[in-house]
Write a structure and sequence with these properties.
Layout (H helix, E strand, L loop, with lengths): L2 E2 L7 E4 L6 E17 L6 E15 L24
Parallel strand pairs: 1-3, 2-3, 3-4
Length: about 80
């Protein structure tokens, strides 16, 4: 967990930095806002999960989304019998 804002917290998380900055982890702000931006020379790497009410990525940052379907949770099928 990189940054945690509890439910009901509507503040804004702002990720800024220098070219040496590296963010790794989850930013969890379910009721808050997440702001990531700047030029690519200002912020080097954001390797994180961003969970927020709104997520804003701006500037000249590059966004790569690596989706791995085998890691997505699926509830196993169930069958209930009633007599």
């Amino acid at each position: 967990m990189l940054i945690y804002l509890g439910p009901g917290n509507t503040n804004t998380v702002s990720l800024q930095g220098t070219s040496d900055s590296k963010y790794l982890g989850m930013v969890f702000a379910p009721d808050g806002k997440i702001d990531v931006g700047g030029s690519s020379s200002e912020i080097s790497t954001v390797n994180a999960q961003l969970v927020g009410d709104s997520v804003k990525v701006h500037g000249s940052v590059t966004v790569d989304i690596n989706f791995q379907g085998e890691l997505v949770f699926n509830r196993p099928a169930t069958l209930e019998l009633f007599k």
